[in-house]
Each structure stands twice: as structure tokens, then as C-alpha cells.
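From the shared-data thread, chain only:
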Amino acid sequence: MGTRVRLYLNVVLLVELTCSCLCVYSVLANNTNNDDPGPDFILNSVMATYDRKFRPNTKGPPTVVTIDIYVSDFDSVQEATMDYGLVIFLRQRWNDNRLQYNASEPMVLQGDSANLLWQPDLFIPNEKKGFLHSVTTENRLLRIYPNGDVFLSSRYSLTLSCYMDLKKFPLDDQICIMQMESYGYTTKDLIFNWTEKDPVQTEEDLKLPQFQIRKHETESCTKQYSTGAFTCIRARFYLHRDVGYYMLQAYLPSILLVVLSWVSFWITYDAAPARVALGVTTILTMTTLDSGIRATLPKVAYAKAIDIWMALCQVFVFGALVEFAVVNYVHVLRTKKRRKVLDKYRFSVISKDNAAFEIEDKFSIDDGKKKSNDKVIKRKVSRLSENTVDVTENGDLTHRDIDATDFLVDAKSIDRFSQIAFPTAFIIFNTIYWIIFFLFID
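Structure, as C-alpha cells:
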């Protein structure tokens, strides 16, 4: 009985030894055919002792993270809210020696696997809102290299604040920034650096509705707070505004309205309703145009270039209406003066006429003398009668020989002067305006 038991145990041990040898042989054969272990085995073996709560080299030098961004879309810049939108691929690279493994190829993992690893606590101070794209899956890419290098790429949509100096608006250039900092790690633990080659890349056919991206620059901007020094990097986007939209929507309509207000100078001052209606209409239209432009702009404490333009255009339009008020005032005063002169001459004619009849009666005895004196008196009365004038229905005087000498100018002279003075002044204003804002104001 004991012999049988020993024999049975020996057989079992032999079978187990044979199976073990076969397993070792298969593993060795597999390693011979494929030098790299399976990714599942590698990941499990690496993550077995990994703790993502601690940064790499916890007690060693700071972890250096190199960053670059790829701008796939640059949304329209909003002056009213002083912000702009970006769609970017944020790429981060760092080394974590805890992730080293023995293989020749990197591991490419799905984006959500990044949640298993330590990640830099990067945040964007000038961000207003943003989100990580997740259609159709979370837009993240994770690669782990055998030497422990980690590459993480994420796709974000961001709305970033951008303080704008609008003194030259809409003839302005703007600089908008994107700033990235570490939230909790000081420079003793974490450092951000831009990649040396092409830290900021943009889509080749990237276009903005109102701006052109002239250039972009990168810089370091380490911040010192009461809690310590925190690493910071910044990208600057230099934007040049295309003025074409505002030329069509603001400058050209306002120029046409100013020119339209000058039409009243060629309308006779007798047509008061037409000139008043034209002046009031142009003022109201200019005010509406100005209000529409202001509605899209922030309320700032200084005057913008467009404000100066619209204000001066309103001055020209309002000046055309005031010019008619002056013309009408002068016309009324001259009419009153002419009426006084008219009454004076009419009284003089009547007096001379009575005197003529008295002289005629006085010399009625002598037929020859009567005829001679009668001709002389009639000529005097005729010359005096020529100085009489007629009053039109609107109160104007049609005779040219009677002038109100108390006034230096008349209504027609003011209109003729305005026909030259207003266009000349507007041309001078345009010249000064465009020269100053294009050449002298930065």
C-alpha cells in the first residue's frame, strides 16, 4: 500500500514538473519570437506600484513639462465683452521614471487612461469658459515611452479674455494672450517650458472675420505670489483689424449723410419746410447710425476713433441746419428793413406828387410855362415812382434798387459761402483724421 502511494506521488510530481517545463519553454519561445512583452502585462506591472497623487521625482529636481499648442480655429474677437475664442490641441510632454519599462515601442492608450497617471496641474488664468471635446469620444491621446516619457494631447475649446485698447478703433491692432500657469506646484516642484521648435502652430488657411493674425510670440512669465513662485508661460497673438466692414457700415454712410446735408445750400431759403425736413432727417439718421455702432462696443472712459468721426460728422450735419436758421434770420431782418425803406420812399413819392400838383396850379395862367413845368414835375415824379417796390406773397421784396445797408451780408451770400466752406472744412477734417490715426497714434 505504501509503495503504491509513493508511486502515485512520483507520477503526480513528474506531471507537474513536465507542465512547468512546458510553460517555461512556451514563455521562452514566445520571448524569442517577440522581444516586447504584451502591453497589458506592461501596463499592469507598471501600475502595480504607481501612485498618481505624487509627482515624478518627488524629492528630486522639479519636473519639467514642455508644452506646445496647435490652433485649429480662431473664433471672432468680441469687442463688447473683450474676449476671443480658440480651438486648440494642447500637447504636454514630461518624464516619469516610474513608468519605465523594457520594450522598444511606446504604448498608445485611450485618452481616459490619462486619469490613471499624474498630470501637471495646468490652468489658464484668462479663461472665461472652456471644455474638453468628447464627440464621439474623449479627444485625448496618451503615449508612454519605454524611458518613462509621457506625451499627452488634448483638444479644447476656450473663450479667453483679451483686454483691448480701443483708442484707434476700428483702425486698431490688438494683442491677445493665452497664459498657462501651475495652480499648486511652485517652481521647486514644476516648471513649464515652451518647446524649442514651433511652440505655437496654426492652421494654414486660418481666417478671422475682421482680423488678420500678423504673428505670434511666446515667453516665460513666472509669477510671484505670497504663497511662492509659480511657473507660467504665455503666448501672444498679434491681430490686425480689417477696416473694410466699418468702411461700408460706418464711414461711407456717414460721409453720404454729411454730403446730403449740403444739398440744402442749393435750395432757396424761401423753401423753409424742405430745408428743415432735410436737416432734421440727416441728423436723426446720423444719430441712429452712431447708436448702432456704439451698441456693439464696450463702455470705455476714453474717446475712440470712431467716436471722434461720428461726432464731427454730426457737427457738420447739425451745422447745415444751423446755417439755414441763420439764413432765415437774416432774410427776415432784411425783409423788415426793406419794408421800412419801402414805406419811406412811398411817403416821399406821395409828398412830391402833391407838390407837383400845387406847382401845376400855380403856373396854370401861363400856358407855355405850365407845359414846361408839368414836364419837369412829371419827370421828378416818374423817377421817384421808379424807387417803389412790390411786396410778394411771402413778404419778400422783389426790387433790386433798395438795399438794407445796415447788413454786411444777405441770405444768398451766406448760402454761397456755405457751398464752399462746408465741403472744404470736411476735406480738411478727413485729411487730418486719417493722417493722425494711421501715422501718429500707436
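The chain has a mean pLDDT of 81.
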